[in-house]
């Protein structure tokens, strides 16, 4: 089930215009992902930590989100030092741990953690629906937008339906195992979900037609840019440019 | 026999989902202005089908359908019908698809070509009628069952319909929401048809009763 725990809160970051936050999150993510210098990765990580703190997000929740990432990173720390050719810093029998491998693993760890923290603090502090609104303000193709928007709206309903079916199986003493009965029952469950979702989509469409739907959606809400939004945009952009220049000088030399 | 008071008129309407098992066979029905009709019938007797025929979501296999004095034959004849008749679906999750309550209520009026100012006013008025002031920014799918049903009614009322078709409007509602629903209906001057199995509720809000069975309607 999708929850939006980070979006519930009241901090300066929650109050900033989501358009500004989206405009910042994307270039930051790109810059950090493409950067090669440790200084830039470290400053992005520091910025990420500052923003998450300013947003007053629960540390436990942020760590829970990072845990998934750390699993991947752990795999990199195991494989990269052993597989990348370079100067050996340590040898175990025929395996050698390379300095380049360690550096690469460290850089990926810093960069990915920094990006996740930045995205959590910038985008996570807005609801998915306000982000969908932002995308429509940015004139993204309408069909993609409605696909995103309606999927998000109904994933919840389909999730509830899934749990209802699963519970109905459980109360009749269904215990999943490695056998044909389990596979078949799950097959029925998924098939039933698909059919129900299809039928629901038809009913929703009918309901929309009954309210005069003619293929156009209208936006009721409009965002308002305040002075603090512009200030935030300026400060963050300056830091972004600073980090970009830093990256440029460091890689040239 | 042309009367200005006739809103909906079905004449010998037949309809089948599967050719050998017709749901409606030669159904006759008239709804006049001011009538508040309850529609009873067994499960699967075609009550919801009848609503969908009136709205043009389904097309009859035989017979004639006149709504607001004009015969409706093709899909596009129903554009006007949908503007002037409001259908409340059984499952409110089918009706509420917008992120917030205000936007869902605004969807219909926007489709009618109303201006933003008018739409905002309509949203406010509609919420006041429902007794849901301050619900504008609530997220639709996180509402309780009773609130969802009231908001779904609001999305229909916001289009200022002349007729309401209500499909099981109070099923699963608690006493309080059921009473609020009844009071909203009684306080309106709308004509409506209600499908329900709740005899007390029907007693309270309707003045005529039909039974659908064997593909036809009987007055009871």
Label this structure with key terms.
heterodimer; A: 253 residues; mainly alpha; two-stranded antiparallel ribbon; 9 helices; B: 220 residues; alpha/beta; six-stranded mixed beta sheet; four-stranded antiparallel beta sheet; 10 strands; globular
Write the layout of secondary structure elements.
The complex is a heterodimer of chains A (253) and B (220).
Chain A: H1 12-15, H2 18-34, H3 38-54, H4 59-83, E1 88-92, E2 95-98, H5 99-122, H6 128-137, H7 142-170, H8 180-210, H9 227-252
Antiparallel strand pairs in A: 1-2
Chain B: E1 6-18, E2 21-32, E3 36-41, H1 47-54, E4 62-67, E5 70-71, H2 78-84, E6 85-88, H3 92-95, H4 101-111, H5 116-130, H6 145-157, E7 163-167, H7 175-187, E8 191-195, H8 199-205, E9 208-213, E10 216-219
Parallel strand pairs in B: 3-8, 3-9, 6-7, 7-8
Antiparallel strand pairs in B: 1-2, 1-4, 4-5, 9-10
Can you summarize the main beta sheet of chain A? 2 strands, antiparallel
Strand order of the largest sheet of chain A: 1-2
Structural class of chain B: alpha/beta
Give the CA-CA distance, first to last residue of chain B.
24 Å
- Give the overall shape of chain B, derived from the CA principal axes: globular
Please sum up the structure shown.
The complex is a heterodimer of chains A (253) and B (220). Chain A is mainly alpha-helical.
Description:
Chain A is 72% helix and 4% strand. Chain A is mainly alpha-helical and 253 residues long. Chain A has a two-stranded antiparallel sheet. In chain A, a hairpin with a 2-residue loop joins strand 1 (88-92) and strand 2 (95-98). The longest helix of chain A has 31 residues, at 180-210. The termini of chain A are far apart. Chain B has 220 residues and is an alpha/beta fold. Chain B contains eight helices and ten strands. A six-stranded mixed sheet of chain B has the order 6-7-8-3-9-10, sandwiched between helices. In chain B, strands 2-1-4-5 form a four-stranded antiparallel sheet, with helices on one face. In chain B, helix 4 crosses helix 5 (116-130). The chains are: A mainly alpha (253), B alpha/beta (220).
């Amino acid at each position: 089930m999708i929850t939006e725990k980070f979006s519930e809160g009241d901090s300066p970051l929650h109050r900033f215009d989501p358009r500004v936050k989206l405009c910042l999150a994307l270039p930051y993510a790109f810059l950090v992902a493409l950067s090669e210098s440790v200084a830039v990765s470290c400053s992005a990580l520091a910025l990420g930590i500052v923003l998450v703190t300013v947003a007053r997000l629960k540390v436990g929740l942020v760590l829970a989100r990072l845990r998934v990432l750390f699993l991947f990173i752990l795999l990199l720390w195991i494989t990269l030092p052993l597989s990348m050719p370079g100067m050996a810093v340590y040898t175990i029998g025929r395996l050698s741990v390379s300095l380049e491998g360690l550096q690469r693993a460290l850089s990926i760890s810093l960069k990915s953690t920094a990006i996740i923290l930045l995205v959590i603090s910038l985008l996570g502090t807005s609801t998915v629906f306000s982000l969908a609104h932002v995308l429509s303000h940015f004139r993204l193709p309408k069909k993609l937008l409605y696909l995103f928007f309606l999927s998000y709206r109904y994933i919840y309903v389909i999730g509830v339906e899934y749990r209802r079916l699963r519970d109905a199986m459980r109360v009749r003493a269904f215990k999943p195992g490695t056998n044909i009965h389990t596979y078949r029952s799950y097959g029925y469950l998924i098939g039933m979900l698909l059919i129900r979702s299809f039928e629901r989509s038809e009913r929703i469409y009918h309901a929309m037609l009954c309210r005069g739907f003619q293929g156009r959606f209208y936006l009721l809400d409009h965002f308002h840019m305040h002075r603090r939004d512009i200030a935030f945009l300026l400060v963050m952009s300056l830091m972004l440019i600073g980090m970009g220049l830093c990256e440029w000088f460091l890689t040239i030399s | 026999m042309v009367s200005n008071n006739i809103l909906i008129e079905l004449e010998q309407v037949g309809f089948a989902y599967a050719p050998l098992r017709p749901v409606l066979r030669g159904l006759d029905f008239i709804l006049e202005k001011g009538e508040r009709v309850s529609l009873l019938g067994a499960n699967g007797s075609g009550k919801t089908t009848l609503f969908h025929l009136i709205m043009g979501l389904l097309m009859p296999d035989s017979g004639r359908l006149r709504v607001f004095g004009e015969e409706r034959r093709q899909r596009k004849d129903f554009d006007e019908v949908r503007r002037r008749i409001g259908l409340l679906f059984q499952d409110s999750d089918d009706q509420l698809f917008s992120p917030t309550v205000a936007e869902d209520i605004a969807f219909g009026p926007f489709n009618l070509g109303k201006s933003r100012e008018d739409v905002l006013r309509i949203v406010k008025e509609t919420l006041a009628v429902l007794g849901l002031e301050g619900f504008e920014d609530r997220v639709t799918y996180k509402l309780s069952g009773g609130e969802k049903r009231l908001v779904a009614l609001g999305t229909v009322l916001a289009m200022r319909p002349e007729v309401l078709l209500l499909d099981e409007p109070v099923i699963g509602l608690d006493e309080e929401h059921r009473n609020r629903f009844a009071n909203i209906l009684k306080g309106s001057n709308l004509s409506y048809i209600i499908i329900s199995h709740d005899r007390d509720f029907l007693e309270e809000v309707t003045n005529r009763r039909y039974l659908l069975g064997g593909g036809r309607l009987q007055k009871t």
